[in-house]
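Um, can you check?
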Amino acid sequence: MGSLSFERVSKQYGQGARAVPVIAGLDAQIADGEFVVIVGPSGCGKSTLLRMVAGLEDITGGEIRIDGRVINGLEPAERDIAMVFQNYALYPHMTVFQNMSYGLRIAGLASDEIERRVGHAAQILEISELLARKPRELSGGQRQRVAMGRAIVRQPKVFLFDEPLSNLDARLRAQTRLEIRRLHAELRTTTLFVTHDQVEAMTLAERMIVMNAGAIEQIGTPESVYERPASLFVASFIGSPPMNLLRDWAALGTRFQEGVVQNVGQNVILGVRPEDAVIVDAPSSGALWPFAVEVIEMLGAERLIHGRVGTESVIVRQEASRPAPCAGQQVSLQISPSKLHSFDARTGRRTDHAAP
């Protein structure tokens, strides 16, 4: 096993005036045996960071350490990592057994040790009956498990996953997520998993690193990131549907302003999660927002109600067992003050101005 650390890590392409910065001064610590997901939109630098750990990209500045050892100048084979790629990267002319054992044979391991490791990994991943097949005879999910098995047999200090589920359909993605969680629970190998899918990040991570434009926006458990987003970007990126953000909250009326937010100035953006806005007939306590219903989406056990609060678009998540409003209806939303989030409109960072 091994810890993984980033100290002032930076990456740029080109030199001088033409240099294009990709990652700037990134710091993060990943504990031995921890499962950390790096999540962010396309182009934010998450895959570049992973490739720098793997030795597939040079580091412009800073240090990356595995188990306290600086790996900046080491060749990929010397870093004691194993990487699972998005496209599986299997040799089409080799059987599953040969694909999984190839790296071990190159390393010169004895035949009985190779068979033991491949057999154990195949048993963990439930692909023992596939060892004699070639990749063209496998489904997408089976190919991904073979790619994971090839990484497992290496017994590395760090696993690196580069968007490994993006080529699978929705059902297989959900199934493979469970297999990856089960695998980590059994092996407890330090794991760095890159994805642009915030649902994958929330369901897989012990901790998550949210990246945007080459910088870290927030590091924390999925629960803490969801419940207390550190910035407007995190609030709008994490959550499906995302947090409702109101910039024109001052138009909601004197009662709202006096009852919920006091002395916050004009440069605060308020946020509320869709499940924290409740349609009411007889309000008890909390903020009241006038809500004009526009569209209702039925999603089985719940529905999403789209509408407007003043000039702002708002989504309300509601259990399907509750009475539904009608499109075009004017209703009221009740918001508990403790469920409100506030952000500085100039910096985009979280503030503590919301009423307790």
About this structure: The first strand starts at residue 4 and ends at 13. Residues 170-187 form the longest helix (18 residues). The radius of gyration is 24 Å.
